[in-house]
Design goal:
Layout lengths: L2 E12 L8 E2 L2 E2 L2 E11 L4 E6 L5 H16 L10 H12 L7 H21 L3 H5 L6 E7 L6 H13 L4 E4 L4 H11 L5 E4 L6 H10 L7 E3 L8 H11 L3 E3 L5 H10 L5 E2 L9 H14 L2 E2 L8 H10 L8 E4 L19 E3 L12 H6 L4
Parallel strand pairs: 6-7, 6-13, 7-8, 8-9, 9-10, 10-11, 11-12
Antiparallel strand pairs: 1-4, 2-3, 4-5, 6-14
Helix pairs in contact: 1-3, 2-3, 5-6, 7-8, 9-10
Length: 368
């Protein structure tokens, strides 16, 4: 089975996050920017992948078209056991463009698509190609966008719990916000706090102490820069709270540096950033070896979310899947990845990633 074409698709679906807002640098994100890769074969089987693209979808598309497509077109689709070595060679071929960021996002997309193809060729869901599923449904936590005002945070938390979510994650940087959420959800509901890398070590330790009585499950990425693992380890040691990080890490090599430094209690590989499924599985093996828990990063709605569900089904570790808390007018998967009233997301059971994208939705929301 030969790869005949590699194509990037930019899909832009607006969303409504209510009282929340989300800013990345100077850009306000008002829509879900999804960059999918479509890998066609001479056998008529298509593989789908996903590349991180929040505020740079055109750049990510260009990386797929100019770097990834020439590396893959015309080659034999590797068997599942050979995908990691195949992708390792592509990493080597492209290392001059950087081992992180856009290059690795584009590599991630191809890797996911190859695993999708390999599982479809066998007629099995991805999880069965890798191991034995231990869960058919994954509990979700509501990943709230930044709100700011404690009273609004409390209201959103209460609404999310009524909708069935079993846990809450904030994207807030103030102690009143954390305590407002805790008071709203009660003592028994897991609460996570994502700071998005704003603090130095001293300030991060102080923040951890200030919100310790709210008992967050972990603080996520409290330190700038995110790759300062020595300072992150100091915050973990002196702050008295668990620390999560890894959504901005690429390849198992950076995760090894992070874990060996003692920087995290929870590792957060993002399958559409870390290097795809192949690198994700390497991170999982390393985390198990070093006794680090997993808390995958997955606030997206493309094939990467399906891949995350497939991978999480292989572990009976009570981990949650991250779901952005927002309303959107359309779903590439016809609503089948929505969180149900019990707060769960069903693991797809179809071949490959489990579902095929809705072509009508792709065309309606396509950016040319």
């Amino acid at each position: 089975m030969l790869i005949t074409n590699v194509r990037a698709h930019h899909i832009r679906i607006p969303y409504d996050a209510g009282v929340a807002s989300f800013k990345q640098g100077a850009s306000s994100i008002s829509a879900l920017e999804i960059v999918m890769i479509e890998v066609s074969t001479d056998a008529g089987i298509t593989g789908w992948g996903d590349a991180f693209a929040y505020v740079s979808p055109r750049t990510t598309c260009t990386a797929i078209e100019e770097m990834i497509a020439p590396q893959a077109q015309g080659l034999e689709v590797p068997d599942a056991a050979d995908i990691p070595a195949f992708m390792e060679q592509i990493q080597r071929n492209l290392h001059l463009f950087g081992r992180y960021g856009i290059t690795m996002f584009a590599i991630s997309a191809l890797d996911i698509a190859l695993w999708d193809l390999a599982a479809k060729a066998k007629g099995v869901p991805l999880h069965r190609l890798i191991g034995v599923a231990k869960r058919t449904r994954i509990p979700a936590y509501a990943s709230l966008l930044r709100i700011g005002k404690p009273e609004l945070i409390a209201s959103e938390c209460e609404t999310a719990l009524r909708q069935g979510y079993k846990a809450i994650k904030l994207h807030e940087t103030t102690t009143p916000a954390v305590f407002a959420a805790r008071q709203a959800i009660g003592a028994g509901t897991p609460l996570m706090v994502d700071l998005n890398c704003p603090l130095d070590g001293e300030a991060a330790i102080a923040f951890a102490h200030s919100c310790r009585d709210a008992a967050p499950m972990f603080l996520e990425e409290p330190v700038w820069p995110p790759e300062d693992f020595a300072t992150l380890a100091e915050v973990r040691a002196k702050g008295g709270l668990n620390i999560a990080a890894g959504e901005n890490a690429c390849t198992v090599h950076q995760f090894r540096q992070m874990m060996k430094a003692g920087a995290v209690s929870h590792a957060q590989p993002s399958v559409i950033k870390v290097g795809g499924i192949s690198e994700y599985l390497r991170v999982v093996a390393l985390a198990d070896e070093l006794g680090v828990r997993l808390a995958p990063h997955s606030p997206y709605f493309g094939p990467g979310f399906l891949a995350t569900l497939q991978l999480m089904s292989l572990r009976d570790d009570a981990s949650f899947v991250e779901a952005f808390y927002m309303k959107r007018p359309a779903c590439l998967w016809r609503g089948r990845i929505d969180v149900d009233t019990n707060g769960d997301v069903e693991v797809p059971q179809g071949p490959g990633l489990g579902y095929e994208p809705d072509k009508a939705v792709m065309e309606q929301y396509r950016v040319s």
